[in-house]
Amino acid sequence: MKITSRFTVAVHTLLAIYVLGKEYKMTSDFIASSVNINPVVIRRALSSLKAAGIIDVKAGSGGAMPVKDADDITLYDIYTAVDCVEGDLFNFHENPNPECLVGKNIHAVLDTHLADAQAALENELKSVTLSDLMERLSILI
């Protein structure tokens, strides 16, 4: 199972808003040109990020602007804002055979490891802020 591209699109969108927003109006068309994607996809991302209280969006061509400080936004905040995964990261097959030695024990063998892997991913996302990414980006520019 993959995490949808909504996550990386939202991160790209936020970086554009926070880095370029002082010089350019952050419209969905402008951001879409940076992401190289349809503006409709950007509008969906903007809507999710606004609902999460990360940005504000002015109707029409008013553009998007930051609401929160970049130090206060983690990758986990973005990850949860755009609903790129429904429920657990790992989707377990539903009906292992209870008559099989492996089938009846597969959850006991695997569930903890999958939960630990998801927790590790989420903890990593919580440890990186948008500000951290902006700093790395400034080195590359």
Description:
With 141 residues, the chain is mainly alpha-helical. The protein has a domain at 6-87 and 129-140: Winged helix-like DNA-binding domain superfamily/Winged helix DNA-binding domain (Arc Repressor Mutant, subunit A), CATH 1.10.10. Helices cover 53% and strands 6% of the residues. It has six helices and two strands; from the N terminus they run H-H-H-E-E-H-H-H. The protein has helices spanning 6-20, 28-35, 39-51, 75-81, 106-126, 130-140, and strands spanning 55-58, 63-66. The protein has a two-stranded antiparallel sheet. Helix 1 packs across helix 2 (28-35), helix 1 crosses helix 3 (39-51) and helix 4 packs across helix 5 (106-126). It is elongated and about 65 Å long.
Summary keywords:
elongated, Arc Repressor Mutant, subunit A, 2 strands, two-stranded antiparallel sheet
Task: Describe the secondary structure blueprint for this structure.
Elements (H helix, E strand, L loop, with lengths): L5 H15 L7 H8 L3 H13 L3 E4 L4 E4 L8 H7 L24 H21 L3 H11 L1
Antiparallel strand pairs: 1-2
Helix pairs in contact: 1-2, 1-3, 2-3, 4-5
Task: Return Rg in Å.
Answer: 19 Å
C-alpha termini separation: 33 Å
In the CATH hierarchy, the architecture of the domain at 6-87 and 129-140 is Orthogonal Bundle
Spatially, the strands of the biggest sheet line up as: 1-2
The succession of helices and strands, N to C, reads: HHHEEHHH
How many individual β-strands? 2
Main pleated sheet: 2 strands, antiparallel
CATH level-4 homologous superfamily of the domain at 6-87 and 129-140: Winged helix-like DNA-binding domain superfamily/Winged helix DNA-binding domain
Q: Helical amount among residues, as a percent range? A: 40-55%
- Could you please say which CATH topology of the domain at 6-87 and 129-140 applies here? Arc Repressor Mutant, subunit A
Provide the CATH top-level class of the domain at 6-87 and 129-140. Mainly Alpha
Summed over residues and divided by their number, the pLDDT gives a mean of 93
- The geometry reads as elongated
Unreliable stretches? none
Tally of alpha and pi helices: 6
- The structure class reads mainly alpha
Beta percentage is: 5-15%
